[in-house]
User: Which sequence fits this backbone?
């Protein structure tokens, strides 16, 4: 459970970064801005990295990694090392020792956010 327990407060972080990057949220979007967490279900069908939070074995599959554009931003060597490291941790039980609670967590509060702006 440590992965979930040690996550930063993403809504606050996201809103702060958005404000720094683009200016005041209220000015930028022209009204009251609300940032809503979009929980990721355990058996999410979409093929983005966080969709596999409870099924890390999927990330060993080339097809699962190729479906996520983030993998195109890292070198072939980095991808190879990641897969080797994850495979080793899954094979020897390290991943489950550290993160087994994720396998049954009904939903994961990851990085997905819905930004809603309502007129002032």
Assistant:
């Amino acid at each position: 459970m440590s992965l979930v327990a040690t996550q930063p407060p993403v809504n606050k972080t996201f809103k702060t970064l958005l404000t720094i990057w683009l200016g005041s949220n209220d000015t930028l979007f022209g009204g009251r801005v609300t940032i809503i967490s979009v929980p990721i279900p355990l058996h999410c069908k979409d093929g983005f990295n966080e969709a596999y939070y409870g099924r890390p074995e999927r990330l060993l599959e080339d097809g699962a990694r190729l479906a996520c554009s983030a993998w195109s931003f890292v070198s072939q060597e980095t991808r190879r090392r990641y897969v080797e490291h994850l495979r080793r941790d899954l094979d020897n039980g390290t991943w489950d020792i550290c993160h087994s609670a994720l396998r049954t967590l009904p939903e994961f509060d990851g990085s997905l956010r819905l930004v809603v702006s309502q007129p002032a």
In short: The chain is about 40% helix and 15% strand.
